[in-house]
Design a protein that fits this description.
Blueprint (H helix, E strand, L loop, with lengths): L1 H25 L3 E10 L3 H8 L5 H4 L1 H5 L4 E5 L8 E5 L7 E10 L3 E10 L3 E13 L2 E11 L13 H21 L1
Antiparallel strand pairs: 1-7, 2-3, 3-4, 4-5, 5-6, 6-7
Length: 181
């Protein structure tokens, strides 16, 4: 009788482990978040402002959460290779750095965000601008990334779009207000 119970328990453990392994392999770790806003300013003016990473401290939502965060800059702002680094004691801000990777003047601005805390990760971010009318610019801000296995299982219970999207909306609202002032 005990032998049958032990065999059943072992089979159950094996099935649970197999199910977790299958789930880890089946769930995509990819995520993407994007938001947009229309700003009543010419595209060249909007782009000149947003390509300066230091300006994100004025409109980005995370700096507002911890105005005392420590920042460090390396390189020439607004050019490929410039790095903006931050360190915060607040877990929802964490620490990391953002590096300008590519600039298509007045069109697209690409960066790589490397988080160190609260957990290490890397994401590709972008901002695009498009003229949509006289003195009107549609600005899209987004990022993509991938949670490696087995951390990808977190995406079963955490929707990155719902987690980060409101931050993007807050930032874009602040950016619009700042540039239209």
């Amino acid at each position: 009788m005990i032998k049958k119970i032990l065999i059943a328990a072992a089979v159950l453990v094996i099935l649970v482990v197999a199910a977790v392994i299958i789930l880890v392999m089946a769930v995509s770790g990819d995520y993407r978040v994007e938001r947009e806003v229309t700003i009543n300013k010419p595209k060249a003016e909007v782009f000149a402002y947003i390509k300066q990473l230091k300006n994100q401290n004025e409109w980005g939502p995370w700096h507002k959460r911890d105005p005392a965060m420590k920042t460090e800059f390396r390189g020439t702002d607004g050019t490929v290779g410039f790095v903006s680094a931050w360190t915060s004691e607040k877990p929802d801000v964490g620490s990391g750095e953002q590096e300008i990777k590519k600039i298509a003047e007045n069109e697209r601005f690409d960066t790589e965000i490397r988080f160190m805390e609260p957990f290490p990760s890397k994401s590709d971010a972008w901002i695009t601008t498009e003229t949509v009318g006289d003195n009107q610019t549609k600005l899209k801000w987004g990022f993509t990334g991938n949670m490696p296995r087995p951390a990808n299982l977190m995406l079963l219970v955490m929707d990155m779009d719902k987690a980060v999207g409101p931050d993007f909306e807050e930032g874009l609202s602040s950016l619009k207000a700042k540039l239209e002032k």
